[in-house]
Amino acid sequence: MTVETDALGILDRHPEAGRIRSRRMNKGVATLIVDASGLRDADRSKLERELHDAASAIEGVDEVRIAMTASQPHRTLIAVGSGKGGVGKSTVAANLAIALARSGKKVGLVDADVYGPSQPTLLGSDTKPTAEDDRLIPVEAQGLKFLSLGHLVSPGHALAWRGPMATGALAKLVDADWGDAEVLVVDLPPGTGDVQLSLIQKSRPDGAIIVSTPQDLSLIDATRAIDLFRKMNVPVLGIVENMAGYICPHCGEGSDPFGSGGAEAASKEIGVPFLGRLPLSAAVRAASDAGRPPAAGDGPEAKAFADLAATISEALERVRR
Ligand SMILES: Nc1ncnc2c1ncn2[C@@H]1O[C@H](COP(=O)(O)OP(=O)(O)OP(=O)(O)O)[C@@H](O)[C@H]1O
């Protein structure tokens, strides 16, 4: 280090000095390379400003040049779809995101359900996101960052978005300031129409999971959803069977109101992995409606979602290889 460069040592007093990867001073020009990985846009600008001011105050410095670099983590996007509504797609998306976060990943959740964005209710959060330079800053809840299409309209207003409007709104959510999130779980609207098609095109998921109930009709629709993802060259990670089997909370006897094993058999037939089964449970419904996602607790449902998250992480590793 030259004597001139030595003068920049005073920058070590900055609490984020560990991010300074290189410093050089030549003929009155101080040049810093700073690692901004994982910082939100606002914190990155603040750090740049503070280092600029600190370096400018050093005797002999006439000009300060700062290069902020960021090794942006590759953000994996998982789309959660279903052939039809009401099968528990949003419930699975929310709890899967929480289970992934509990496994140590940094997770974001995008509620792209144009027909009925329900994630604010499921996550028990009515906080509104803010924006900076026209970029949304996700809300934090249940150990996740999340944004919902519902955040973009006033409460009680119906969402009548179609094609370009829906994709434009989704782009705003996906391109938000997700900071260091490594995984984005996207809760798509149910069905296989043009809106879904353009949302998949726009968000370009790394993998998709399909939620279905065990009965035949739901599975026929699930097959359509799988075809849609395949047509778009999105790897289908597999089918999750939801509302499979019911244990009576009074007598403890098990029954299968929607049939049993249908999704597992169908997934074999279609040639996609079977990712797991979540029981129909009054506790799941009550907790979800009350904004207490079961995956955040420590009951048997939390274990079921943790297992599902582990299976999906493995499936993602396989498609990435
Ligand atoms: N495993 C389960 N056991 C009991 N209730 C469940 C289960 N999964 C979901 N539900 C309940 O079913 C209802 C529908 O769930 P959810 O909103 O997640 O479905 P969806 O497929 O996302 O529907 P849509 O896309 O039409 O909004 C909710 O009341 C939810 O609490």
UniProtKB/TrEMBL annotation:
Pfam families documented for this protein: ParA (PF10609)
Sequence positions that bind ATP: G83, K84, G85, G86, V87, G88, K89, S90
Record SUPFAM superfamilies: P-loop containing nucleoside triphosphate hydrolases (SSF52540)
TM region positions: none
InterPro entries given in the database record: Mrp/NBP35_ATP-bd, NUBPL-like, P-loop_NTPase, YlxH/NBP35
CDD domains in alphabetical order: Mrp_NBP35
Molecular function terms, GO-annotated: ATP binding
Keywords: ATP-binding, Hydrolase, Iron, Iron-sulfur, Metal-binding, Nucleotide-binding
Superkingdom in the source lineage: Bacteria
Record's function text: Binds and transfers iron-sulfur (Fe-S) clusters to target apoproteins. Can hydrolyze ATP.
Protein family: Belongs to the Mrp/NBP35 ATP-binding proteins family.
Record's subunit section: Homodimer.
Protein name: Iron-sulfur cluster carrier protein
Lineage summary: Bacteria, Pseudomonadati, Pseudomonadota, Alphaproteobacteria, Sphingomonadales
